[in-house]
Amino acid sequence: MTHFNVEAISVGKPVNLETEKGPLKTAIQKQRVEEPIRLSKLNFTGDYQADQKHHGGPDKAVCLYPAQHYRHWEEEYQREFPYPSFGENLTVNGVDEREIAIGDRFILGETELEVTEPRKPCYIIARKHGLVDFPVKMIEKGLSGFYLRVIKEGTVSPKDKLILKQKDPRQVTIDDVNEVFFHDKDNKAKVLRILEVPALAAGVKASLQQKM
């Protein structure tokens, strides 16, 4: 059974973050937890969103970012990025946007999770780190991370492994969805293939349906 090492579980509340362009209210300043924590359908205990229009909700209950991408960004910018620099809840080693598919199911502690959509890097990451081109580079390189919904609630521990329970048979990867959104926007055949995945997040589904 395929399993991945969880490098960090992190949560946070909205705070006023001082940036070069002034204060920014955001929950991107998450802190690692060291003890077992409850995960509900909406979030980890103690985790909240400042912008609930674009973040949070059942389809975005958990944000995951691959730990190996940190090495890439540290080389790119010649600086250190400690976990969880990119505001994710789960920092996991070895998962890859080119292999993880919408609808894939995972076990984490007592919980069961389902992949729903890519993360869309936004200006908040840029302002947090003072790197204007950061979101664009994340999109260009496909190093976006992704969201999961909670199928089964429960308690998880930072010591737990993320265990792959089942692969979605359609194998529409996170990278496939990113390609349609950012690089191959008019490819209706790809859009249709993505729309056929039942686990696809409702917001992404609505956006793609407008392309048809």
TrEMBL record:
Pfam families associated with the record: MOSC, YiiM_3-alpha
Recall the taxonomic lineage recorded for the source organism: Bacteria, Bacillati, Bacillota, Bacilli, Bacillales
GO terms assigned for molecular function: catalytic activity; molybdenum ion binding; pyridoxal phosphate binding
Task: Give the InterPro entries listed for this entry.
Answer: Benzoxazolinone_Detox_Enz, MoCF_Sase_C, Pyrv_Knase-like_insert_dom_sf, Tri_helical_YiiM-like
Protein name (database record): MOSC domain-containing protein YiiM
Q: Cite the MOSC domain residue spans from the record.
A: 31-165
Q: Which organism is it from?
A: Thalassobacillus cyri
Task: Name the source's superkingdom.
Answer: Bacteria
